[in-house]
Amino acid sequence: MSQYTTGELAKLCGVTVRTVQYYDSRGILIPSQLSEGGRRLYSEDDLKRMKLICFLRDLDLSIDAISQILKEAHPENVISLLIEQQEQVLSEEISDKREKLEKLRELKNGLKTREAFSLESIGDIAVSMEGKKKLQKMRRMMLLTGIPVTALQWVSIMIWICKGIWWPFGLWAFVAVVWGILISRYYFRHVKYICPECHEVFKPTLREAFWAAHTPNTRKLTCTACGHKGFCVEVWGGDKV
User: Is the CB of residue 234 less than 8 Å from the CB of residue 191?
Assistant: First the structure.
């Protein structure tokens, strides 16, 4: 069975000799035996215990807490929960880093489309990025709610053509108008626009926004701050009206 000196154990675990000696003095890593010359010798089980202590220290547990855990009848149950908790923390950190990386890439790509680099251009892109996921989620929701309305349209047309019954089409027209009004009001309550001239974020009237010429991400509006009329960038307007 392998035996390790204090120095060898420290090297295998990536810590200093002083650390191994400190754990010994605290009673959480007592060597299995002493040599005839009084040198501390550690076994394979001691090596596993040392690695476990290092892992728990990486989780920011205090020496006293580690000592209490190792004295438990079933310390593996506590350690299993700690591992699950650490896994969750790391997953959240990875997700956060990925989100920040995505924002940096979007900012980089956005700046490439700007002829002149300025603080205002960075601010515009930052506002566009903020709430982008919420805006996309709302658009998907609107698309999903429109599927039944579209299905009703085609069913009513087929009934009218095949059976000469027109009233289902009239029902669809009524539903479509009501749905269009409600979904439009909901949509424009949750979006705002950035003026390309003064860089102010503003909210147009429902009437102007509804009838304005638009692209997937812009709409031709009159800025309420400077009066400029042109295509403005659509951004998330928040949960409050």
Answer: yes
Residue among 202, 190, 205, 207 nearest 233 (CA) = 202
Over range 106-126, report the average pLDDT.
57
* pTM of the full structure: 0.46
Copy the structure tokens of residue 133: 């996921």
Give Cβ neighbours of residue 214 (< 8 Å, ≥ 6 apart): 220
Which DSSP string do the residues of 97-131 spell out, in sequence order?
Answer: HHHHHHHHHHHHHHHHT-SS--HHHHHHHHHHHTT
pLDDT at 112 over 80: no
Quick one: tokens of 110? 């956005």
Neighbours of 192 (CB within 10 A): 19
Distance of CA 25 to the CA centre of its chain: 44
Q: Return the structure tokens found at 102.
A: 């995505």
Looking at the DSSP assignment, which residues form a beta bridge with residue 74?
none
